[in-house]
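Lecture 7 notes: from sequence to structure.
We start with the chain below.
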Amino acid sequence: MKLFTTIVVSSCLAAQAFGVTPVVSKTKGLSKPALVTHKSPLRQKNAGDVSPLFRDPTITRGGAIPGLQAYSEALDKKPITMKALTSLVGWFLGDLLAQLFIAGGPVDWKRLATLSFFGFIYHGPSGHYFYNWLDKQIPGTDAIPVFSKVAIDQVVWCPIFMSVFFTYLGLVNGDSLSTIGTKIKTDLLTACQGSWKVWPLVHLINFRFVSNKWRIPYINAVQIAFNMFLSLLGSKKA
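Predicted structure tokens for the same chain:
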């Protein structure tokens, strides 16, 4: 009963906050609104000053999500740069969360910078070229093109990407080529298996519903969690 009451109260408050027009009861003798009796502050003239989530889109590009339109325009004008920066943020957050909430801290700033730079220098740009090529070679969003893209991504691109990832970490850490080779032999299959548990479903949605322009931002949104796994695996000694 308490849960039901909480849900009802929360719904009413949410309706009021979002400026839902009150429903006037049709019962005779009742003239007051059923939900609210005063005007929501978000329906006032300067609603954007009340909550940043409801800014005037003519003032703040992106409307309810400030900056989204500007980001979209930047993706059109400088796609590689913006995707590189997006991946930098994604890898930064992924490793930071891994260090704080999985490893328990303290933060290894060198490792954080190393993985963030990998997102910037390789993940974003390589993803831009790879997905452009893949969409050009296999156009369409029907079942066969979508499943074909997922298969190529996971069977071909995934091992290449993981090998580059381990090689990059080894070179940054000053490891020898033999040590890097051992690391790849030891952990490549584990990394790919981790990918196969997550990314096929993600990419089914990606190739079916997401446009080419937004693939890297979409992937980074999901990859923040997956990067936590990669950052831990990458920091493990060979």
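Points to note: Residues 159 and 189 are 8 Å apart (CA to CA). The two ends are 56 Å apart (CA to CA).
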